[in-house]
Amino acid sequence: MDDPRATRLVERALRCYPARWRRRHGDEAAELAALLIRDGASAGSIALSYLAGAVREWLRPRPGRRLSTAACALLIAACSLSVSVVLVASPASARAALTPTRARGAGSSQVRGQAHCRVGAAAPVPGLIRAMGQLPAIIWEAGHDRSC
Amino acid sequence: MRVSGRDDRAGRDVLRRVGEASVLILISLADGPKHGYALIQDIKELADVELGPGTLYGALDRLERLDLIESLPADDRRRPYRITAPGAAALRAHLDSLERVSAAGRLRLRLGGV
Question: Long-range contacts for A120-123 (Cβ within 8 Å, ≥24 apart)?
């Protein structure tokens, strides 16, 4: 490509491709563009064709990308689940739930409270979302507080 | 029909969904290896179709992923591509299928008197 403007235009279009593609085809694509321009093709149409190709290349589904998308979806689902568990297990709502029972009879509510107070009842929650860092501890504490 | 999958290739038309550019590239490579520029020139002469370079590389990548073509060591900055045995079989199956459709179309035109 003798015309520096044409060279720059095509180079810019080629830079839009993923790095992996550029490593594999970058040189030959630039060489092909040079030959086509030498034959009279316009640099603009070549750059446009490469741009469209770059868009297609970025949009092409790849197995690795599909896996990471699934992992992200799983993480988001786990986050929403843990947030709902935290909200449900918050001390304020627990107190609100327990108050009418206590008013009716302390004895029976105590029995019910103890029935929920087993550590085993709260244990599956941290087991489910162990990967979420600090959240399991918060949820366990919240659940424990509510039950007792 | 899935395009990928080695076992699907025997006898079935795996090229039905790869697009016209891919079929033209396979036809062009059928008589010997060519690099990108030679492919564009040959396809223009053969089918009067001007492939853009972006379309060309997209199709080459797709065909390579399907093992229908393979790239040869680059000569200077030009990398030649060659049709593989499964690629030749797939092209044959596709052309056979086109021939059947074409014959049926011609027959119907004759019968319909159009």
Answer: A121/A147, A122/A147
